[in-house]
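Thread: quick sanity check before group meeting

JM: Hey all, I'm pulling together slides for Thursday and realized we never actually wrote out the predicted structure for the chain we discussed last week. Dropping the sequence here so it's in one place. If anyone has concerns about the input, flag it before I start.
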Amino acid sequence: MAYLTLKNINKIYPNGFHAVHDFNMEAERGEFIVFVGPSGCGKSTTLRMIAGLEDISKGEFLIDGELANNWAPREREVAMVFQSYALYPNMTVYDNLAFGLNLQGVDEDVIEERVQKTAKILGLTDYLDRMPRALSGGQRQRVAVGRSIIRKVGIFLMDEPLSNLDAKQRVTMRSEITQIHRETGATTIYVTHDQTEAMTMADRIVVMKDGYVQQVGTPKEVYFNPANMFVAGFIGEPPMNFIRRRVEKGCIHVGSHCIDLSKKLGERIAEYEGKDIVFGFRPEAVVLGGQADAYTVSGMVELTEMLGDNANVYVDVDSDKAILKVTPHEIPAMDSEVVFSIPVESVYLFDAETEQVI
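JM (edit): ok, ran it. Output follows.
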């Protein structure tokens, strides 16, 4: 039996706003689950229902097989890290870490041992006597994380904990939080709108949109086997390219190129004759120039971005926009025509009406 189970969880506010629709998920002990999606998709609301900070309107939430809908937050044995550090400004780092244990009446020797161990894990040993105002943003966030892990609970809940940090600090804290998770072995549920955080940290990802779960899977699954256009476009940087066309005699026409979709769908292409279809491909899947046994497309170069180890090339493809990821040595000239190929196995096809993958 899964450690955490959410069955058809719904959140409906008194004003009638339906924030979360039929959320279903199971999490095993020690798993690192990331909720990802745009602002307002319901991921933080779901996290707060797990924490007991929001009531569950409909559905069942189970912890280790026991119905926990009406349990108080302290009964759920959860620790939560918020976007804001929420540190006590008049307390030292040591006292901030020890605060929860002091409230529980834990023996001072045990508190000392746990604080020192937690500080060592987080690289805070040299800062225990400092006040929060004397710390950097990354150090304050580590204190906030430490205040949670010191309690030795079974469930860690993290709501956008890195959003206030700069790019370099976020990269460092991502690896630190992942390492802390491995050392503690706690079940962790992490909320973010940053798909890079989701891909690099998660055992499994829950992609949400408008209160609905779009897909649940490992980072590899949601990247290489997206369930629909939203997941395909949200996961990946730069995002997947989409070209919408009508199927005519088993092909779609992109400029002067006829793309035979039977290579991808076989006889199933007959189901889509006369219907609109969406042809998708990731920027890194392209190969410049024409290639045998691949789909060939051409477009006009509108913009290039040199990024060091690679470059993004923005192309107008018969009035559609596409981004190609190429090596720095392949950057085509501005306003020139570029021909590129996409291997058949790297192409994604979506139903234009339902936006589901075909």
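AS: nice. The longest strand covers residues 294-306. The chain has a mean pLDDT of 93.
JM: adding both to the slides.
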